[in-house]
Design a protein that fits this description.
mainly alpha, Cytochrome C Oxidase, Chain A, 72% helix, globular, binds heme-as
């Protein structure tokens, strides 16, 4: 990696860690408010801090970390030209201006609309314009990454692309196609409506376009973690990539199946034909397959590596894993958490069970296990080697130890917080509500103990955040100078060659478009046809309806 490339990745990752601190503080405040322990001062609204929390952690932290990490992977595997880097910086600044605009409106209390910004909740237009800029800025990263691989392929005709570069491009294709939905609703519906050019907004169209984006969004978060699991963790444990083809296949399946499934967030939504909900639920079960392939592949890597090192017996290989190396330990806890987290996802996707958990705090528990444990612990695991690589410093034994402690704190905090959320959700506690006794109803009194459990977990997690920010500052400014390894695993020597068709992007993008058209065209036409009078899909300029 060149010095200039390192600076670029570090800029993105620094924004992610600043977001972690701000967003984490808001999370702590929320759990305290919900448990009845704290009343917010100075007229600050509960939904204001909840919006900061969701937007800054769910959208800002993730996007910046992912883009920074992916630039590092691309720079390392296929290089980056000066021109590509300039465009990448331009994207960074566009995103940053957008982020500041959005954050300012939320902090001023002009956008208490949560990270899903469901209509008819309305924010200040600057909130939506800022969001649009963040998305447009991220497209710069897409095109830079596409160009990097294209340039490399041109110079290496007929050669298989490096696995990590393939994975980055797959993730950015997914992102580009998915963000078209949210860009459409923001640009065509929300901005004109919030500016007063449109009198009304078609709620169902906006929610459908949001979830067309909202579900692949979660795989955009997950896939960088999978990049580390497939191609970096094997190197850290002293092994090889189990199967290059299987890894590529998993990523291709994510491109195809992560998008046409948005209705599983809208199963209780009136106005969508049940047949199409059923079809999208079936497709949701298809998107579970690449995760099961991943679980299989990881177990195989762990077992083969252990056995090669001479650890026999049924589970003897388990002992060889470098439990004391935080670069392995943190992502490993993330993987373990993904077993209950993914199971929860399967429960959510099952139509009848969804009726029990939808809009309860169970769902919040689900995504704190998925994105806030599996994904974030893997991102922390990546940070322990990536930040030293970017800053030319060393991960010391002391920071390694602190990292292990940080991981344990996170696990304990999340166990209490997410565990309480899951149980309270099953007892009917709604998500997204401040403290209330619900006029003293008996059912609500059952939730209180779990809300206190969430506050305890939230407090422990905040300590974890402070520790992680300290580790970030240490690795950026204070750790001793030196060189840290950029761990990229190789394939097994006797591996079967990867079939060429896996790199046929036109095929995968074509199939994805077909699936999207299949899953969305008829229901979308239905939605528009049955829109209530006075609520056309796009009601502008005023008076058009
Ligand atoms: Fe989800 C709601 C369904 C995965 C995030 N999800 C959400 C929301 C978020 C989110 C943020 O169908 C809330 C949105 C909102 O605000 O309303 N989700 C699924 C399904 C999966 C799934 C089927 N979700 C994720 C991931 C997320 C995420 C990943 C973030 C990163 N989710 C839903 C549904 C809803 C939902 C409904 C809507 C609920 C409602 O009604 O509102 C699947 O992708 C899960 C598949 C995963 C597995 C696990 C495989 C296990 C692996 C680990 C192996 C471990 C090893 C370690 C090898 C089947 C890969 C072993 C080591 C040893 C030492 C033993």
């Amino acid at each position: 990696l060149t010095k200039a490339n390192k600076k670029l990745s570090l800029a993105f990752i620094a924004v992610a860690f600043i977001s972690l601190l701000i967003g984490g503080l808001m999370g702590l405040l929320q759990t305290l408010v919900r448990s009845g322990t704290l009343t917010l001062p100075w007229g600050i609204d509960y939904y204001q801090i909840l919006t900061v929390h969701g937007v800054i952690l769910g959208l800002v932290l993730t996007t910046y970390f992912i883009i920074g990490f992916q630039y590092a992977l691309m720079g390392k595997t296929v290089g980056m030209t000066v021109k590509e880097r300039k465009i990448a910086w331009l994207g960074f600044w566009v995103m940053l201006v957008g982020t500041i605009m959005t954050a300012t409106t939320i902090l001023l209390g002009k956008a208490n609309v949560l990270y899903t910004f469901y209509a008819p909740l309305k924010a200040h237009p600057v909130f939506y314009i800022g969001l649009a800029l963040v998305i447009i800025g991220s497209w710069f990263a897409c095109f830079v990454n596409f160009h990097q691989l294209y340039r490399w392929k041109k110079a290496h005709k007929g050669v298989k692309s490096p696995l990590l570069a393939f994975m980055v491009v797959a993730n950015m294709i997914l992102w580009l196609i998915a963000t078209l939905g949210v860009a459409a609703t923001v640009l065509v519906q929300f901005i004109p409506w919030s500016l007063g050019y449109a009198e009304t907004i078609n709620v169902l169209v906006s929610r459908t376009l949001f979830w067309y984006f909202g579900h692949p969004l979660v795989y955009f978060w997950l896939l960088p973690a999978y990049m580390a699991w497939y191609a970096i963790i094997p190197k850290i444990i002293g092994g090889k990539i189990f199967s290059d083809s299987l890894a590529r296949l998993a990523f291709v399946l994510f491109i195809m199946f992560s998008i046409p499934v948005g209705f599983h967030h809208q199963l209780t939504e009136p106005g969508i034909d049940p047949t199409w909900k059923f079809i999208q639920v079936v497709l949701t079960f298809m998107v579970i397959i690449p995760s099961l392939l991943t679980a299989f592949s990881l177990f195989a890597t762990f077992e083969i590596t252990g056995r090669k090192k001479g650890f026999g017996g049924l589970f003897g290989w388990f002992k060889h894993l470098p439990w004391k190396d935080v670069r392995f330990f943190a992502p490993m806890i993330g993987m373990l958490a993904f077993i209950p987290a993914g199971t929860g996802g399967i429960i959510n996707a099952s139509h009848q069970l969804n009726a029990v958990v939808h809009n309860t705090i169970w769902v919040t528990g689900h995504f704190h296990l998925t994105v806030a444990t599996t994904v974030i612990l893997t991102f922390f695991g990546i940070s322990y080697w990536l930040i030293p690589v970017l800053t030319g410093r060393k991960l010391t034994a002391k920071i390694n130890r602190l990292g292990i402690i940080q991981t344990i704190i996170w696990t304990v905090g999340m166990f209490f917080m997410s565990g309480s959320m899951h149980i309270a959700g099953l007892l009917g506690a709604p998500r997204r509500s401040a403290y209330s006794t619900y006029s003293g109803t008996e059912q609500a009194s059952d939730w209180i103990g779990y809300q206190i459990g969430q506050a305890i977990g939230g407090t422990i997690l905040f300590i974890g955040i402070l520790l992680m920010v300290y580790i970030f500052l240490n690795l950026t400014f204070f750790a001793p100078k030196g060189t840290e390894e950029f761990p990229i695993a190789e394939e097994e020597k006797d591996a079967e060659p990867t079939p060429k068709f896996l790199e046929n992007w036109k095929l995968w993008i074509g199939l994805t478009v077909v699936l999207i058209l299949f899953a969305y065209t008829i229901p979308f036409m239905d939605i528009i046809q049955h829109s209530p009078p006075g609520s056309p899909p796009f009601d502008w300029p005023i008076g058009n309806s």
